[in-house]
Amino acid sequence: MAPSPPTPATGPDESGLVGFAVDLTSHEALRRVHVLEAIGPDWDPIEVLRGEEEAYDLLYSGLDAEQQRLHDELVEAGVLPRRGGGRAAA
User: Fold this and answer.
1) pLDDT digit string (tens) for 18-73?
2) Angle, CA of 34, 40 and 46, to the nearest 5°
3) Which pLDDT value is given to residue 86?
4) What is the pTM of this model?
5) Is 86 buried (19+), middle (13-18) or exposed (0-12) by CB count in 10 A?
6) Residue 88, number of CB atoms within 10 A of its CB
7) How many Å apart are CA 27 and CA 7, to the nearest integer?
8) What is the rounded average pLDDT of the residues 75-90?
9) Rg of the chain's alpha carbons, rounded to an integer?
10) What is the CB neighbour count within 10 angstroms for residue 89?
């Protein structure tokens, strides 16, 4: 991958500030290549999502009445995502 051309220098604007811009397009493409190499060919995003859902269910399972009330308030406030029937897992 060819490096990006250097960013041209610009002088100060009317506020006295100098503009600064960097094109990270090539860096982002390289970062994505490295991420895909790191996770490997066996990575299954659907399975990962299922595992996250199971962990969420386990985290919010077995709440007592006060904990469930607080959980419901957090869901209603948009702090926690709404799931299923709006109740934490039993």
Assistant:
1) 778 888 899 999 999 999 999 999 999 999 999 999 998 899 899 999 999 999 99
2) 110
3) 47
4) 0.48
5) exposed
6) 21
7) 14
8) 73
9) 24
10) 15
- Predicted confidence (pLDDT) at residue 1 exceeds the cutoff of 80: no
Q: Letter for the amino acid at 17? A: L
DSSP 82: -
Query: Residue 14 is encoded by which pair of tokens?
Result: 């009317």
Contact 64, 71 (CB under 8 A): no
Side chain identity at residue 49, one-letter code: L
Instruction: Please state, in angstroms and as integers, the Cα–Cα distance from residue 7 to each residue in 1, 12, 85, following that order.
Output: 18, 15, 53
Q: How far apart are CA 53 and CA 30, in angstroms?
A: 31
CB environment 46-75: b (16+ within 10 A), e (fewer): eeeeeeeeeeeeeebeebeeeeeeebeeeb
Q: Which two tokens stand for residue 73?
A: 């308030």
Residues in Cβ contact with 61 at an 8 Å cutoff, skipping those fewer than 6 apart: 88, 89, 90
